Amino acid sequence: MQNTSTAWKEAQEQTIVPESFVELSYRVGDPAAQLDVTATDNGSEPFANTAQIVDELEKTYEKYATFEQDIWILDGTMKLLPDVVTQDMGFVSSELCNESGVFERPPVITLSFTQIHTTLTPGVTIQWTEAFGEHATAFAVTAYNGATVVATKTVTNNDKVLSVVEMDLENYNKIEIEILEWCYPYHRARIEEILVGAVQLFTKSDLLAFEHGQSVDLLSAELPKSHITFSLHNVEGEWNPNNPQGLWRYLLERQEIVVRYGYKIGNSIEWIKSGTFYMSEWDTPSNGIYASFTARDLLEFMQGKFEVTTTTLNLFDLATQALTQSELPVTKEGQNRWYIDSSLSAIAVTLPEDFDFTCAEVVQLCANAACCVFYQDRNGILRIEPLADVLTDYVISKHVSYANAEYEIGKELKAVDVNEGMGTATNSATGEVQLVENPLIQNIGVANDVAEWIKDCLKNRKTLSGEFRADPRLDALDKVTVENKYATTPVFITNIKYSYGGAFRGEYEGRVATP
User: Which of 295, 282, 345 is nearest to 317 (CA)?
Assistant: First the structure.
């Protein structure tokens, strides 16, 4: 469940909800180049930190008084620099521009790479300084392969704090950004962030269609799924594969897309995360007026065969090996994109000779053997942990439902049988037996624990499904309250789908929680 303000929740209870928003941030380029780059300069202030402008970590920039023209502490709009600078500063030039904004000795930022990058990349994106609201009005970007210029572009009359410099970059190992002119006289040049690639921002006015789906098995008997599909205007042919200058040239699998949802609360927009996804497939018809795209979760990276390196270990180490072998992208902070509950360390296993699974399947089997759920959260982190049995404040009420929730009642559960009798749990005298096969369940104690866990989940035969006016803070695995004509029922959500066409519409399915 995504955290929101009280005002957000109250707005969802109204007959007409406030204006809603969807925003997709898609970096078109080569992620490998960003991981390889380092930034240096030809002159900066002692408090500056040029290296951090390319590290992709989350940053918070503030306005500090540096005694340039009109940048004074006395007006109360900025802070004094501390004696020891630990704050984010980015690049701050030692040179000041003159009365015309021109630098006598232009500041130069050099982006260096350890290898030649051959993937076609559509340029660079420069965040000048949002904290100060300033920007370069003229600058040049030049890419090199050794001493040879492979691409160059000079920008004049720039009036944007965020500059997307579109140019074909290919076979390069160095990029120089030369700042020629600043927007205010007697000021230093500042840069907060540089990305190798062009950032494309798609809002609801750009989207012809949008869907977001999540599916998680409460017993980790199936792999989780999280994906988005969306369609964009293609009237101008920018996604047309026959257009030699089109954006389609830069499409690569596994490029990152970050999505967020918002509502207008008062005079501002409150945003929540939708998730982090990776480009998987696209369809750009030559004669079509739209282009459609699909992006999926981190399991796209985990389809390779697991390579056994150690036969005797515990489930925590086994899951870690599978995730490590998948070479998942790291977070902006440089951290691994997974969390494994420490309880998996207590279960030792010996891998059989015929242990033949993908990396994703290995992690799923580990989760199942440890009585855990396996899913990707909206921060883009894969998680293996026990299900949180906490009733949230989310209510799918009759007020927001398009029809009464549909009940489906499964067959009576007689018993659970794990690995052909290694572990059992009896539920009733009649019904069907749930069979479980997992090569990582290898002793009677673990087998009985898994059998009891599965019995407790499946003994309530009821599932609920329906369509409703969605509040998009709801996630799969959340325990919510569902109202229908006859009852108010606690339900674990197992499937959720949002569609957006100017407003959010949802479809859900879940298992009724056992009393």
Answer: 345
DSSP lists the bridge partners of residue 15 as none
236's CB contacts (< 8 A; 6+ apart) are none
Please state, in angstroms and as integers, the Cα–Cα distance from residue 492 to each residue in 227, 288, 322, 452, following that order: 20, 41, 28, 18
Output the 3-class SS for 26-76.
EEECCHHHHHHEEEEECCECCCCCHHHHHCCCCCCCCCEECCECCECHHHC
CA–CA distances in Å: residue 296 to residues 226, 276, 280, 342, 478: 6, 8, 6, 27, 21
- CA–CA separation, 120 and 116 (whole Å): 12
The reply to whether the predicted model has a pTM over 0.70 is: yes
The C-alpha angle with vertex 488 and arms to 485 and 489, in degrees rounded to 5, equals 120
Helix (H) or strand (E) holding 448: helix 444-458
pLDDT, mean of each 10-residue run, the chain (515 residues): 94 93 86 90 94 85 76 64 79 94 96 94 91 94 97 96 90 97 94 89 90 97 96 80 71 83 94 93 79 93 95 97 93 86 97 95 98 96 96 93 89 95 95 96 97 94 93 96 87 97 95 84
Crossing angle of helices 315-325 and 359-369, rounded to 10°: 160
Cα(449)–Cα(428) distance, integer angstroms: 18
